[in-house]
């Protein structure tokens, strides 16, 4: 396995990890968004609860969950490490900065956007993952996950933080989706423009669906 | 009467690598037809005539092909124009009364030598680590004996136009040299002569790049946008691909 050590030691190896784990997390977002969009059926959470039960009881999903957390942690720690080391490569700063002339602000702010998403994620996991996995609140049948969502999103501050989290995610994906493919060495005159278009659509649609859940529940569109 | 531009310059002055630098302000009268470096020649004459130390800046061919000139002008490497080196930038790109801030390339891998000159031997070390073909090519062979598809020739030539000035590093928020290394690797790995050593070369060059203290790429595209030769960002994807393939083969 020594030949894989470059994933931890070289600049390109580390970036490769960011791209690969990033795309893995993108695949998770798609599943997560699909399951959660069941709340929009607006049948009192019946469809959504059935989907959530399937996810919590399926053996393969449980195994994949471990992989998901490992992938997430690798992405987070490698990202923070790169952010820290990259920022030390220019100790004498420019007097006049004009980054907007040559690049997009969100492409230069992936570390910051990622950190905002991480902060949101801690709160989000506390709200739902910890409650459903480590307490008997849901499993005992006291309350369904759907009812838990309605309760959590009664608080307008929580709704605001969730919406801000989704906006951070949107900008993170707007650069990250395409960037991951580029880092994995994919650049093609036909496929790259397609990847960029899919990336832009993904970065808008997925966070929008996520953000609509707390908003819709808070405003009573879904009950 | 010929039009004259009055330019207020704010120039980085630093006597040597050991001492702290500072900005100095100067006023220069210049023709709009003058190049940016000719404007600096006029400034230096003024400074010499008044008994002051002239501003040190790198320059050589002054026709945009050597890659020596290296000024960050109003926060942009080689100034505000696209695909132009500092020496080919003309004062008509500025307005009468403008204040222009001039700084050296900033990166830990490019330490300041004096004023606006920086030490770019880190680039030389990357090239020395493998940016060449180590075979005796002998006499020129018949052009048709080695068939190279037009697309490959174009890709290699486009990458080969890199003049190694370092604007990519100076523009990158991570001070990454991957556009430069990507250009060299793409140029050599696309042609038959360079393919023989492609794995050994890319690993050696990336190791040298990391050792010299350049950052890791985050695909912002600032390098390609500021490159005076228009090297495309795609060379970095090629570099990533070449490096990963070589590593998976055990190089």
Would you mind describing this structure in some detail?
- The complex is a heterodimer of chains A (223) and B (251).
- Chain A is built from eight helices and no strands.
- With 223 residues, chain A is mainly α.
- Chain A has one domain: Up-down Bundle (3 helical TM bundles of succinate and fumarate reductases), CATH 1.20.1300.10.
- In chain A, helix 2 crosses helix 7.
- Chain A is globular and about 55 Å long.
- The termini of chain A are far apart.
- Chain B has 251 residues and is α+β, with helices and mostly antiparallel strands.
- Chain B has two domains: 110 residues, Ubiquitin-like (UB roll) (Roll), CATH 3.10.20.30; 129 residues, Orthogonal Bundle (Fumarate Reductase Iron-sulfur Protein, Chain B, domain 2).
- In chain B, 35% of the residues lie in helices and 13% in strands.
- Chain B is built from nine helices and seven strands; from the N terminus they run E-E-H-E-E-E-E-E-H-H-H-H-H-H-H-H.
- In chain B, the strands form two sheets. In chain B, strands 2-1-5-3-4 form a five-stranded mixed sheet. Chain B has a two-stranded antiparallel sheet with strand order 6-7.
- At the A-B interface, helix 2, helix 4 and helix 7 of A face helix 7, helix 8 and helix 9 of B.
């Amino acid at each position: 396995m020594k030949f894989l050590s470059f994933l931890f030691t070289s600049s390109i190896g580390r970036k490769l990890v960011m791209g690969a784990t990033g795309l893995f997390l993108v695949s998770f977002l798609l599943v997560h968004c699909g399951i959660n969009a069941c709340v929009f059926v607006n049948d009192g959470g019946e469809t959504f609860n059935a989907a959530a039960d399937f996810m919590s009881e399926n053996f393969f999903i449980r195994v994949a969950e471990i992989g998901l957390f490992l992938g997430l942690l690798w992405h987070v720690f490698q990202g923070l490490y790169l952010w820290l080391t990259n920022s030390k490569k220019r100790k004498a700063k420019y007097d006049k900065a004009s980054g907007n002339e040559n690049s997009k602000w969100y492409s230069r702010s992936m570390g910051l956007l990622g950190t905002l998403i991480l902060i949101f994620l801690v709160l989000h996991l506390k709200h739902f993952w910890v409650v459903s996995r480590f307490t008997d609140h849901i499993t005992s049948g006291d309350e369904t996950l759907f009812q838990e969502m309605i309760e959590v999103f009664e608080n307008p501050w929580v709704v605001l933080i969730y919406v801000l989290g989704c906006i951070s995610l949107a900008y993170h994906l707007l650069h990250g989706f395409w960037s991951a493919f580029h880092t994995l060495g994919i650049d093609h005159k036909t496929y790259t423009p397609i990847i960029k278009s899919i990336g832009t659509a993904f970065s808008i649609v997925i966070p929008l669906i996520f953000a609509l859940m707390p908003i819709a529940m808070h405003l009573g569109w879904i009950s | 009467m010929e039009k004259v531009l009055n330019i207020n310059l704010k120039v980085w002055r630093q006597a040597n690598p050991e001492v702290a630098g500072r900005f100095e302000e100067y006023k220069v009268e210049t023709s709009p037809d003058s190049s940016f470096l000719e404007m600096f020649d006029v400034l230096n004459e003024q400074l010499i005539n008044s008994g002051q130390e002239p501003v040190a800046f790198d320059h050589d061919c002054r026709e945009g092909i050597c890659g020596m000139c290296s000024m960050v002008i109003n926060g942009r490497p080689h100034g505000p124009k696209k695909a132009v080196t500092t020496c080919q930038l003309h004062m008509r790109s500025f307005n009468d009364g403008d204040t222009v801030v001039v700084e050296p390339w900033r990166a830990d891998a490019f330490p300041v030598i004096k004023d606006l000159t920086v030490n770019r031997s880190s680039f030389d070390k990357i090239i020395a680590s493998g940016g060449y073909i180590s075979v005796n090519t002998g006499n020129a062979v018949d052009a048709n004996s080695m068939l190279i598809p037009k697309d490959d020739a174009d890709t290699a030539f486009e990458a080969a136009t890199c003049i190694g000035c370092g604007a990519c590093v100076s523009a990158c928020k991570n001070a990454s040299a991957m556009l430069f290394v990507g250009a060299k690797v793409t140029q050599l790995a696309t042609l038959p002569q360079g393919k023989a050593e492609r794995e050994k070369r890319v690993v050696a060059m990336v190791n040298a790049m990391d050792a010299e203290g350049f950052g890791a790429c985050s695909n912002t595209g600032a390098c390609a946008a500021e490159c005076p030769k228009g090297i495309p960002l795609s060379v970095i994807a090629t570099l990533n691909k070449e490096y990963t393939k070589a590593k998976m083969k055990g190089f």
